[in-house]
Write a structure and sequence with these properties.
mainly beta; 8 strands; 0% helix
């Protein structure tokens, strides 16, 4: 499944969350674009406590903030052991969440 983002053709602003308008200038002239899915880790944290009982079977798991090459920031599930600056590729899994893999790995 492809990642998408929006580009405002009026002011050039990039935004990740779909809106009917540009969050920077208010223009309704926003275009959807496909992201390459690659970026660099901006922050990483390992969660050892589930936020709900439904997620208890998933711990521990890593959450990443990734600065995407197109200029927006996305949150994703990490592979574990990620470091700031590391290049990753994000894909949308069957569970609907974004998952990261280190670039150059399967």
């Amino acid at each position: 499944m492809t990642m998408h983002y929006q580009h405002c053709t009026a002011c050039g602003q990039i935004q990740y969350f779909d809106r009917p308008f540009c969050a920077a200038c208010g223009s309704s002239d926003v275009a959807q674009r496909d992201a390459r899915g690659t970026g660099a880790v901006a922050a990483a944290t390992m969660l050892h406590r589930a936020p709900s009982k439904e997620m208890a079977h998933l711990v521990p798991y890593e959450i990443l903030l990734v600065d995407m090459d197109e200029g927006f920031r996305a949150m994703a599930r990490g592979p574990g052991g990620s470091v700031i600056g590391q290049r990753v590729r994000l894909t949308r899994a069957e569970d609907g969440l974004l998952h990261a893999t280190a670039e150059g790995t399967a």
